[in-house]
Each structure stands twice: as C-alpha cells, then as structure tokens.
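Researcher: I'd like a structural prediction for the single chain below. Treat it as a standalone chain; there are no partners to consider.
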Amino acid sequence: MGEEKESRKFSSEEEMKDFVFQKFEQAKIHFGERDRLRDLQEQQDKIGRELVIKTYEKDEDGDENEVTEYIRDWLSKEKEFERLGRLLERFENTQGSQMRGQIRDIFLKVFKDIRAQTKVVTTLYSEDKINTGQSDRAKITIGKCGFGIRYNIQAAKPDSRDLAVFVERKDDIIAGLKSLKLKEWADRFERFVELMPEVSSNGSIKIEYPLSKPVVVAPQYSSDRIDECDRIVFCGDDIRLKSYKSEITVISKGYSEKFHVREYNRYGTVLLIKEDVERGLKLYNDKLEEQVKVAEESFEKIRQEFAMELMLAQ
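Model: Treating it as a single chain, here is the predicted structure.
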C-alpha cells in the first residue's frame, strides 16, 4: 500500500496566508550566507512547486490545490479586474495607432495652404538631440501642403509619429511662425497642441507603491534569481513585484481574455499580496479612468474647435 497523501485544510484565508509566509521564511533563514543564493533558489523553487502541486492537493483525482483555486476564482470575480479590462480597451482607443491616425488626418486638414512657398520653421530635433547624434539638417517646414518634415531636400507630410515631435518642439515652431509674420497660424497651432498631447501620447500609465510587507518571489526555475520585493507596480495589463534589482510580473492579461497568474508556481505569492493588489487596483483604475476621460474629451474638443476648417477641407 502506498503512503496516503496528507490533505491540508484551511479554515480561513488568513490561515492560508500565514502558512505561506511560514514556508517562505523557513527557506530564507534555513541556509547560511555562504551558499545562500544557490540553496535559496533551489529551496524557493521547491516550495513554489509544493504550494501549487502537492501541499494543498485534496485527493488523487487531480483537484486543484486550495490556494490556486482560490486565486483563480478571485481573479475571475473581482470587479476591479473587469473594470481594468474595460478601461484598457478605452485607453487603447485613445492612445493607439488608430486614434493617432485620426488626429493626423485632422491636423493635415486644419493646417494646409499656410503659404505658397516652402519655408523652414525650425529644426526637427532639439539641440540636445542634435548634440547626441541627430542630424541638424532635418527641418520642420511650412508650405502649400501645410507642415512638412524635410530630412534632405524635399519635404514630406508628417506621419502620426511626427505629431509627438511637433508637441515637443511647439515653442520653437510657434516662434518660427511668428518670425515669418504668421501669428494667426501660430495661435491656431498653439491651440491645437494644447488639446493634442492628451490624445496622441504613446505609452502606458504606471503607478507603484510600497507593499504592506516584503515578499520573496519563488522562481519558475532554480536558475532564476531570488528577489525580495518590497514594491508593487501597476502598468497596463501587468501587475509586478519590484525589488531594487528588477521587476517580476505576477499577474497579467496579455493576449488572453482574462487576468491570470503569470507563472504557475506564484499563486502562493499572489495570495500574500492580495490586499495590496486590491488596494492598488482601485487607485490605478481611478487614475486610468481620469486619463481616458480627458483623452476622449480632448478629441471631441479638437473636432468641435476646428469644425469650420474641417468642413472647408471636405
């Protein structure tokens, strides 16, 4: 007869958490400093696997362990994760390539027929970038077709990525337009740029704050570095733990439909930071929603404020 597996039962979430903390602490203090890195990697890996595969196994039918089942259920039912998914979709609609393409189309219609002959307004790159290797021959121009980018001889229409450069170089562009006695166009450009950054910026909103209690992250492989993390980071559809050396993604949406634990042996770690995740997720969602609202309203303001130019351009 084989030895029967012992099934561990927990009366509360707090009891589960205490057990996981105990396991991690045992791994930290059991080994001396001489071989700490190697042995701690191996021990943490072993603990991570036990937590998921063995320690909480209920019977021989292959039922998932209690920690894994609990965390998966929480991820699927937590309303703030559902809210984050919806906000990220709206954020992508305001920050993605489709929106930037729409802004470019409006920009090209609003700024056309500035003058008959092409004139240079300013350099494309700032002085700092020129000093680090960018060409000072690249220029921002104006002419019959509006704004253009000239890298050598002939100017081309700006693409959606160039609009972010126009925002960066706005003061020099405005000064250049005024020096050419085009104050009306300078004022129009300044107003457009006031609205444009909120809908054309590219990148993810990010927040981070200290964990209520540092955690040691069990690696997926024994060769992985062991990190004691003391901060939690929210960035796009990733939730990460951060040490002074690195950031480790523990919860992610990625290309899947729902949020999931990134590595199979990190359910115990996620259990330890559950309250920190819930607290930060609400803060992150509120900040993301505020940003999305500003972006959506800014796009509407651009279309309303320049409605006459857009109508004449039809």
